[in-house]
Amino acid sequence: MILWILIFVVSLATLILSANFFIKAAERLGIAFGIPPFIVGVTVLALGTSLPELITSVISVLNDSSEIVIGNIVGSNISNICLILGLMGVISGSLTMTFDPMKVDLPLMLGATFFLGLTIMDQHFAVYELILALVGIGLYLFYFIKSDHSEGEEIVKTKVKWKDPVILLVGILGLYFSADYNVKSIIEIANSLNIGKEIIALSAVALGTSLPELIVSIVALRKKQADMAIGNIIGSNIFNIFAVLGIPALFGKLVVPDSILSFGFPLLLAVSLLCFFIFQNKNINRWTGGMLLLFYFVFFGQLISSQL
Questions:
Q1: Count of domains in the chain?
Q2: Which of 64, 173, 184, 260 has the CB geometry, 3.0–4.6 Å to 264, for a possible disulfide?
Q3: Which of 233, 195, 196, 187 is nearest to 214 (CA)?
Q4: 93 to 76, 236, 283, 290: CA distances (angstroms)
Q5: Residue 165 forms beta bridges with which residues?
Q6: Whole-model pTM?
Q7: CA–CA distance from 136 to each of 76, 78, 181 (Å)?
Q8: Eight-state DSSP code of residue 283
């Protein structure tokens, strides 16, 4: 137990450091190529920060623990909206965006959430659903490559420095290995306390694999890049559903626990719908952030009480 606690602390510190390297290199490369901050958020950053969820899910399928996959997706997306978005609202006091997420981005996130619900409601993930998930992530990437989200943003190109791609790669590798050991340590510690796998996935694993999104968003917030921070959350949630659902299914059968259908997914759907009201005026203030945090604490409290 002491060894796994030590591994948890070290891997968590490495995770935070890797995320910091990643966000700095991604931002510099985005500016160098003339990419608006929002595009950086929904593509490069969202994909990079979703790697822990993806790798964790693939490993869980290969180890015959695929119930972790759905729990990881649902728990991570709840953490992204309630915990990370809530913290950003509380920390900033008033977070204003220059783009309008109501046009396409939030509908895409909500559509992906409904897609997740439809695919897991029968507790069976079919081959055609796997194909649709992979098509979904392809269409999402294609949309942002072809779309213009630069309204209200000043784009200034700079030269690409050779060290930035290297730092980006080191950051991604650091995210992968540190998240892998972080999740392993969380699972080992939780298993010693006789907690169910799907509950661990909804809470500890989801929280652990959401740490990159948290760090990336806070760093972007400190740099006054609100669009990048919000884009990271929206893009990461869409990536989590399509990629983290579809790719692990290539390696084996996915198991959908009853607790996900009865509690986890309904809450995810509710907070995703809530985002439509929060983003009406393209602003998140301290009150809405506090409300989202309250939802997260209730969610975590319900998971804990279910095991007592």
A1: 1
A2: 260
A3: 233
A4: 24, 23, 10, 10
A5: none
A6: 0.80
A7: 19, 20, 30
A8: E
